[in-house]
Amino acid sequence: MKITLKQKKRLRSYLIAVLILFLISVVLTLFKINFLSSLRIVFGSVFVLFLPGYVITKLYLKELDIIETITLSFALSIATVPLIVFYLNKLGMKINTLNSFLTILGVIAIAVLIYKVKTRK
């Protein structure tokens, strides 16, 4: 499998984003937060506030600028994650870190599966 130039640029941008998040974690260690907690804060924030909306945005809206994609990703994440957790609480599920993580991971996985099925046709 040969990697195209577009895929190389995309991979480089993802690696730069992860490096920036890692550097933010290192800077947070200066504020009397241990390194593991700072990693948890930074990557947990991205996981909760960005990824669900990003996957949903890419699923339904393909031709957007990067600024529009980022804005919609935050807005959709802020809208969907609390609603899903609220309705799971209404169904009797306890709200804790593990259940919230698995719920968000489930939303992301379902959206990715729908995207893969949609692009395969």
Describe this structure as you would to a colleague.
The protein is mostly helical. The chain has one domain (5-120). The chain is 81% helix and 0% strand. The protein contains five helices and no strands. It has helices at residues 5-28, 35-49, 51-60, 66-90, 97-120. Helix 1 crosses helix 2 (35-49), helix 3 (51-60) crosses helix 4 and helix 3 runs parallel beside helix 5. The protein is flat. It starts with a helix and ends with a helix.
Short description:
The chain is mainly α. Helix content is 81%, strand content 0%.
Task: Describe the SSE topology.
Elements: H1 5-28, H2 35-49, H3 51-60, H4 66-90, H5 97-120
Give helix % range. Answer: over 70%
Task: Name the average pLDDT.
Answer: 84
What is the total domain count? 1
**Major beta sheet summary:** none
Labels describing this entry:
121 residues; mainly alpha
